[in-house]
Amino acid sequence: QSREERLKRKPLVNRKVNLTHSSTFKASGVSLPETVDWRNQGYVTGVKDQGQCGACWAFSTTGAVEGQHFKATNQLVSLSEQNLIDCATDDYYNDGCDGGDMPMTFQYIIDNGGIDSEESYPFEGE
């Protein structure tokens, strides 16, 4: 099945958000710092290079999950973008290095029962 055929069967999703009714969160009775740098808190791995592979969707997903995993376990683990590129494919509206869908990739991780580490499934960029 060609990329064009896969794109034709993708559902049209309205992701526009109406912000006219949103409000700004205002903390009360809490002292908040001026800035927060999550790198200094240990929540993010080092910079990763996706090269010419258009898999920003996979890198964004692993970055978000890495931070949440650190918050839950106090252990920072670099997760495998290649696992997502290779396995979170058609049913999750992803096309490897030709683009993908971050929300559906989260669903893949849930359905799969997790994601491999970068160490066990390193990035190849294809």
UniProtKB/TrEMBL annotation:
Residue ranges of every copy of the Peptidase C1A papain C-terminal domain listed in the record: 32-126
GO molecular function, one term: cysteine-type peptidase activity
SUPFAM superfamilies named among the record's database cross-references: Cysteine proteinases (SSF54001)
Single biological process term from Gene Ontology: proteolysis
Stored PROSITE patterns: THIOL_PROTEASE_CYS
UniProt keyword annotation of Metal-binding present: no
Family that this chain belongs to: Belongs to the peptidase C1 family.
A Pfam family reported for this protein in Swiss-Prot or TrEMBL: Peptidase_C1
InterPro entries from the UniProt entry: Papain-like_cys_pep_sf, Pept_cys_AS, Peptidase_C1A, Peptidase_C1A_C, Peptidase_C1A_papain-like
Segment forming the signal sequence: none
Upper lineage: Eukaryota, Metazoa, Ecdysozoa, Arthropoda, Hexapoda
Keyword Hydrolase among UniProt keywords: yes
Protein name (record): Peptidase C1A papain C-terminal domain-containing protein
UniProt entry keywords in alphabetical sequence: Hydrolase, Protease, Thiol protease
